[in-house]
Each structure stands twice: as structure tokens, then as C-alpha cells.
Write a structure and sequence with these properties.
There is one protein chain. It contains nine helices and nine strands. 33% of the residues lie in helices and 20% in strands. The chain has helices at 4-17, 36-42, 52-64, 91-99, 163-167, 169-185, 187-190, 200-216, 273-280, and strands at 23-27, 30-34, 44-45, 74-77, 86-89, 104-115, 118-123, 132-142, 149-154. Strands 7-6-8-9 form a four-stranded antiparallel beta sheet, covered by helices on one side. Strands 3-4-5 form a three-stranded mixed beta sheet. It has 281 residues and is an alpha+beta fold. The relative contact order is 0.09.
Amino acid sequence: MANKNEMATVSQTLLGANDKGRVTYQVAGEDINLSFQIVRNFLTRGNGGVTDGEIIQFISLCKANKLNPFIGEAWLVKYDAKTPAQMLTARDAFMKRAEESTMYEGYRSGVIVQRDKEVLYLEGAFYLAGDTLLGGWAEVHRSDRKFPTIQRVRLQEYNSGRSTWAQKPGTMIQKVAEAHAFRKAFPMVMSGLYTPEEVPEVQAQQEQPREAENAARPQFQEEQPAQELPAPAEEPAPAQAPEETQEDKLPCEDQGQPEPAPVPVETADEQDPNMDLFNAE
């Protein structure tokens, strides 16, 4: 979506060309310029063809509740020429309107579930897999009221069973309960405002093109991982000759002949006795 400056420039240009039904008001210090052409071209969803009367009502609600449709706070929906247009408001716009009040003191919300035979009010959208989701609840506190504004809604009344409702029913029904509670707590600034979650038939129309687009997309099968070929058998290592020991070594060339036996040396005790006679003479 274009930023605020770009949208302001576009709205000023279109107003110069055709300012039929022109209305200017301020939101957070910024001028919001709306006309029939701007609403038809930029702020309407569907192909039902909105009428001038429906545009006037849309512009009046935006001005009275200080909504800026150029940042997605509100838009007009009409998918069938036989049914009236529906103005929808973002959930964040409810929060902003409440925050602007000096009497706002916060809120709490959650889901209603059945666990075994007991009905529980859980804060937030978390519940156990074995719980049965029944609905949602919310309470808004104001300093000038003795009791908080409490709202409880049934899942069956809003669950379309499609798209987001099928995937996140707890979150969706909690949003519905919050919208009910804020609208009751601040009727002067939120009367006549509804979120997409509160209008299942309109939300279903918005989700149809998305579902059709998803169905038209080619379905690709996941590639199967390539089967790895078995590794080739390792060739046996060549047999190594046994290492030669000292005994196995061949004699050197200069030792080709065996060494002569040592000559025994005669001791004094082993000398010939005739030699003693010779020495005596």
C-alpha cells in the first residue's frame, strides 16, 4: 500500500479532476480527502458496483469516526449488485479509537472451551488439543463505569469453516468478541463499525479469489532423493613381502669366504714337557 504522502497526492490530483461528493476532514492532524471517484477506484473491493448513496454513507462513517481509509482502517465491500455494500473496519482501528479516550482502562479477551465436563474461560487463543472450542469472550474497562463491558460470542454463529477460520478458529472468534465489546463500551465512536471477522459471508467472498488462485497453481511433487549407488568394492591391497631379519640378510661381498677359525694359544700349563728339558740344557 502506498504511504500517506503518496495517497494524499493521489487524492488531491483526483479531486482536482472530479470532486463530486468531495469531503475533507482531519485524522491525527492530517487532511483526508474523499470523493466518489476516490472511493470507487481505491477504497472498494468487489465487482458489485457501489452506488452514490453507499459511498455517501461510507464517507460519513469515516468522517464521524475519524478513520483513515488510506492506511487500511476502513474499506467498502460489494460483491453482488443485489445486496447492499458493507463497510468494514480493521480491528486496529477499534484499538486506536479506544486509546484516544481518557476513560479507557484496558481490556481482556480469550476463548471459551469445554474440557471434559467443565466450561473454561481461557485468556488468549491457546487451548489444549483435547478441548472443544465453544466461543470467545472479551471485557473492556472504563474508569467512568462501575462494571466492565463483557461480551461472549458463539463459534457456530461466525465460523465459516474456510481459510483462516479453518486454520485459526480460536484467534478468529477472539477477535469477534473483542469487536463486540469495544463497540458496546464506546458506542459514540464505534457505532456502525464491523470487522471482517464479524461478517462471514463477506469474508468468504474475499477469500474465494485467493482459494481459486491457490487451486490453479500447479502442484509440484517433491523430488525424490536420488538413490546412491553402492560404493565399489575396495581392491585388496597387494601382499607385502615379509621384512628381512638380520638372520635372513645375505653376507656382504667382502665376507664371501668364511672367516678362518682362531688358532688356540697355549698356556704355560699346556706346553710340551720336552721343551723344559731343552731349556735346562
